[in-house]
Design goal:
There is one protein chain. By secondary structure, the chain is mainly β. It contains one helix and 13 strands. Among the domains are: 33 residues, no CATH class; 76 residues. The protein has a 13-stranded antiparallel beta sheet, with no helix packed on it.
């Protein structure tokens, strides 16, 4: 849902430019002024962090909450960021960072029910593994494994029994090169197709 909306913005800008191209020699896209972010509050938390709530759209309600940790002899470190994408005051994206400032995990709530249905895991700031709840029932049923920034293996629980029963292996271009199935429900691959 969110990703679709984000993908529509460049498309809309392109279409606006395309319409202008029909009526003028060179399309002109006016710059869009970004709203001014306002720091609503900054306070210490019980675990020694500093919580800062930021209003991005000027409505007086925070859309971003940053959690900072002070460091001696260095600038403060962003430890966690909570984001409310649809202004319903619930966290839609929670991102945690390591001591180098790199992402460790990002939990996303695509259907805005207050529960993460896509979780990305990172190693050294690079996505390594994703868990996805494709039917929004509260159980992850799709697992993606990344190498070099690309999906190289996909595992699925197709019958909702809590065990992976279908595997896909992908090449560098993202094409499926091998699949496997578990037909007897023991969690092990019984059939391999190449």
């Amino acid at each position: 849902m969110r990703r679709d909306a984000l993908l529509l913005i460049p498309l809309c800008l392109f279409m606006m430019g395309a319409k202008k191209a029909k009526t003028t020699a060179a399309p002109v896209v006016a710059p869009v002024a970004a709203p001014t972010a306002v720091l609503l509050s900054s306070k210490p938390t019980a675990d020694g962090l500093t919580e800062e709530i930021v209003d991005l759209n000027g409505d007086g309600v925070g859309e971003i909450t940053n959690y900072w940790r002070a460091r001696e002899g260095a600038s403060r470190l962003l430890v966690k960021k909570d984001t409310d994408l649809n202004s319903d005051t619930k966290i839609d994206v929670r991102t945690s960072f390591d001591d180098a400032g790199l992402r460790v995990q990002e939990d996303m709530d695509g259907d805005f029910d207050g529960r993460a249905d896509w979780v990305d895991h990172y190693i050294s700031g690079k996505r390594s593994y994703s868990e996805v709840d494709t039917d929004w029932n509260g159980t992850f049923d799709l697992f993606k494994y990344y190498e070099g920034g690309k999906v190289r293996r996909v595992e699925r629980d197709t019958n909702a029994d809590g065990r992976v029963d279908f595997w896909e292996y992908l090449d560098e271009q993202g094409a499926v090169v091998k699949t496997g199935r578990d037909n007897d429900g023991d969690g092990k691959m019984d059939v391999r197709d190449q």
